[in-house]
Amino acid sequence: MGIEDTSDSFATALVLGGGGPVGIAWMAGLIVGLRAAGIDPARAERIVGTSAGSVVGAALTGGGDLESLGRPRPPSAETPPPDTQCLSEVLALRRAGGDARQMRRRIGALAVAADTVEPDVHIERIAALTGVSAWPDADLWVTAVDIGTGELRVWTRTGEATLPQALASSTSVPGIFPPIPIAGSIFVDGGMRSALNADLAAGARTVVILEPLAHMMPRTRADRAHGAGREISIVPDAEAVAAFGGNVFAPDAVAPAYAAGVRQSVTAATRLADGGLGA
């Protein structure tokens, strides 16, 4: 489905942003710490996950092992190194601006031409990472971009994609992971539209945002269009940013990022105590 226009209001939405394996680890650490403090983000009526956030959202709502997301996984021997030319061209297109849909279609063409693993390899890898293969009962929204139209696609349990397919498409960073074919179309990372896609929280009275890349990627206009009366945004503090380093795919930064998330959960729990997520 595309973006739904909903006039029904509900209490709380949780938005989980992109951020690579390091962002996954930081958000997982935050959630593990929050749960220990009696705050359960899974209680949100809607959960929106983009890229790294889709992985965390699936583990959170599907009973996956969040602690395992804080342990680094060495690259597979089957995985080629990143296509640096593709990545450079994608970054240049994003900086150039212009028509957003046309830009995303051009990014999709670059992604198709990049040297990456086969789609099924990435689908299997992401399913193993989350430890969850079936859509949860929760209202989980997973974002991707249709490279044919350049438009946002939102996957839910009622759509055509299996959960592993949806997660693979949402995490398909051009030049690193392959575009994912689903139901006759091809999809790449939902972060090609926005690292948050926070406008999908429309209808929530309170929106809680876990934002791993707040220090690296500015919000889009859409991210300010969620319309919630109250926003609680949790971002990496200076110590967490130092732990992340400059490469969100660095295996050595995963465990420190997870530890930073657990540490930050103490202050985050105070901010979220009256946010409707108490266990």
What does this structure look like?
This protein is an alpha/beta fold and 279 residues long. The protein is 36% helix and 15% strand.
Annotate the secondary structure layout.
Blueprint: E1 10-16, H1 20-36, E2 46-50, H2 52-62, H3 84-96, H4 100-113, H5 119-130, E3 140-146, E4 152-155, H6 163-170, E5 180-182, E6 185-189, E7 204-210, E8 230-234, H7 238-244, H8 254-272
Parallel strand pairs: 1-2, 1-7, 2-3, 7-8
Antiparallel strand pairs: 3-4, 3-6, 5-6
Please name the defining characteristics of this protein.
279 residues; alpha/beta; eight-stranded mixed beta sheet; 8 helices; globular
Task: Give a brief description.
With 279 residues, the protein is α/β, with parallel strands linked by helices. It is 36% helix and 15% strand.
- How do the helices and strands follow one another from N- to C-terminus? EHEHHHHEEHEEEEHH
The overall pLDDT, averaged over residues, is 93
List segments where confidence is low: pLDDT < 50 over at least 5 consecutive residues: none
- Give the amount of beta strand, in percent: 15-25%
**Strands, count:** 8
Rg over C-alpha atoms, rounded to the nearest angstrom: 17 Å
Give the proportion of residues in helices.
25-40%
